[in-house]
Amino acid sequence: MSDRIVRTDEEWRRILTPEQYRVTREGGTECAFSGRLPEATEPGVFACVCCGQPLFRPEAKFDSGTGWPSFFRPVSADAIEERTDRSHGMVRIEVRCRRCEAHLGHVFPDGPPPTGRRFCINAVALVFRPDRAADGDAPAEQ
Ligand SMILES: [Zn+2]
């Protein structure tokens, strides 16, 4: 994709907090129940903390009881990239931001309807963006 964002590790370190860097750039996992997803108090979307790409809608969020934010589907299939992850002696499907390759979490086949999928995402990898901010600044004219 043409709008792919590529930065050096040095640049990411400057932009992100150490915990954000560890999870998204080094494929880490935050401790269960440690990450708090911002409350979606108005219409908006959970976006990539690294590049701002919209990833998950609050409407697709559900309580999985795992201690990580869980969604049954992404904003669109294009927003994310799924890769086979064979680390830790398991075969899992890793979920990355398609635009900047940030590690987000994993997807499992035990989610609720309608998709039956469970996107298990690190809260630290997401920021909430209200829809009203998506169109840029308010018009200067009255
Ligand atoms: Zn991203």
Distance between the termini: 38 Å
Strands ordered across the widest β-sheet? 3-4-8-7-6-5
**CATH class value:** Mainly Beta
- CATH-defined topology: Metal Binding Protein, Guanine Nucleotide Exchange Factor, Chain A
Provide the structure class: alpha+beta
Major beta sheet summary: 6 strands, antiparallel
Q: What's the overall geometry?
A: globular
Q: Say which CATH homologous superfamily is assigned.
A: Peptide methionine sulfoxide reductase
Work out the radius of gyration. 15 Å
- The CATH architecture category equals Beta Complex
What are the low-pLDDT stretches, counting only 5+ consecutive residues below 50?
137-142
Number of domains: 1
Helix fraction bin: 10-25%
Number of strands: 9
Strand content: 25-35%
Topology pattern, helix = H, strand = E? HHEEEEEEEEE
Total count of helical runs of at least 4 residues? 2
Describe the structure.
The protein has helices at 9-15, 18-26; strands spanning 44-48, 54-56, 61-62, 70-71, 80-85, 92-97, 103-108, 118-121, 126-130. The chain is an alpha+beta fold and 142 residues long. It has one domain (9-131): Peptide methionine sulfoxide reductase (Metal Binding Protein, Guanine Nucleotide Exchange Factor, Chain A), CATH 2.170.150. The strands form two sheets. It has a six-stranded antiparallel beta sheet. A three-stranded antiparallel beta sheet has the order 2-1-9, with no helix packed on it. The longest helix has 9 residues, at 18-26. The radius of gyration is 15 Å and the shape is globular. Residues 137-142 have low confidence and may be disordered. Bound molecules: zinc ion. Residues 48, 50-51, 53, 97, 99-100, 102 line the site of zinc ion.
